[in-house]
């Protein structure tokens, strides 16, 4: 059985690898639709509040009104230098890869799975007309791909 829940948050990001408008720092109102796999254990499967009690505070603390930033983006070093010089605290959500909506979907899928939820699919709406549907199969494939990339980087570093 699938329970569907929707969440939203606001965040800034940029994609430093692109040469178009998305290279500039900009913001989105992200919409997240979670498709949770649940099993009936009696009259019900899971209380909707069980999802909300974990996911809403997590999104608010980690993502909402923050900046998604790739740790290898040159802007990251600039922002860290700014915080060290001024003492200002910035809400930065760190990514190991560029902050594309696909990588956001992977990161959220991983984080929600670590919370103990079994996701079947995660839809991430970046704009009114653009949605990425990210499945468990996508997540498994990406984990394999990212693990392979990490192994390749280590072997290149040791050569």
What would your notes on this structure say?
The protein is of the alpha/beta class and 159 residues long. It has helices at residues 48-62, 74-86, 101-114, 136-157; strands at 2-13, 26-37, 66-70, 92-95, 119-127, 130-135. The radius of gyration is 18 Å and the shape is globular. The protein starts with a strand and ends with a helix. The mean pLDDT is 93.
Gyration radius over CA? 18 Å
Looking at how many chains there are and whether they match, the oligomeric state comes to single chain
Q: SSE string, helix = H, strand = E? A: EEHEHEHEEH
End-to-end distance: 50 Å
% residues in beta strands: 25-35%
Average residue-wise pLDDT? 93
Overall helicity: 40-55%
**What is the strand tally?**
6
Shape field? globular
Helix and strand arrangement:
Elements: E1 2-13, E2 26-37, H1 48-62, E3 66-70, H2 74-86, E4 92-95, H3 101-114, E5 119-127, E6 130-135, H4 136-157
Parallel strand pairs: 1-3, 3-4
Antiparallel strand pairs: 1-2, 2-5, 5-6
Give me a quick take on this structure.
With 159 residues, the chain is of the alpha/beta class. The chain is built from 4 helices and 6 strands; from the N terminus they run E-E-H-E-H-E-H-E-E-H.
Descriptive terms for the model:
alpha/beta; 159 residues; 4 helices; 6 strands; Tetrahydropterin Synthase, Chain A; six-stranded mixed beta sheet
């Amino acid at each position: 059985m699938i329970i569907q829940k929707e969440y939203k948050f606001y965040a800034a990001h940029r994609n430093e690898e692109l040469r178009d408008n998305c290279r500039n720092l900009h913001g989105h109102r992200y919409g997240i639709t979670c498709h949770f796999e649940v099993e009936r254990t009696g009259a019900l499967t899971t209380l909707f509040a069980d999802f909300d009690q974990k996911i809403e505070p997590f999104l608010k603390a980690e993502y909402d009104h923050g900046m998604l930033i790739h740790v290898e983006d040159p802007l990251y070093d600039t922002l860290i230098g700014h915080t060290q010089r001024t003492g200002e605290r910035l809400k930065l959500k760190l990514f190991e890869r560029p902050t594309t909506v696909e990588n956001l979907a992977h990161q959220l899928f991983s984080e929600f799975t670590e919370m103990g939820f079994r996701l079947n699919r995660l839809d991430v709406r970046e704009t009114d007309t653009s949605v990425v549907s990210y499945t468990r199969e996508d997540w498994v494939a990406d984990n394999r791909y990212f693990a392979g990339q990490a192994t390749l980087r280590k072997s290149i570093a040791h050569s």
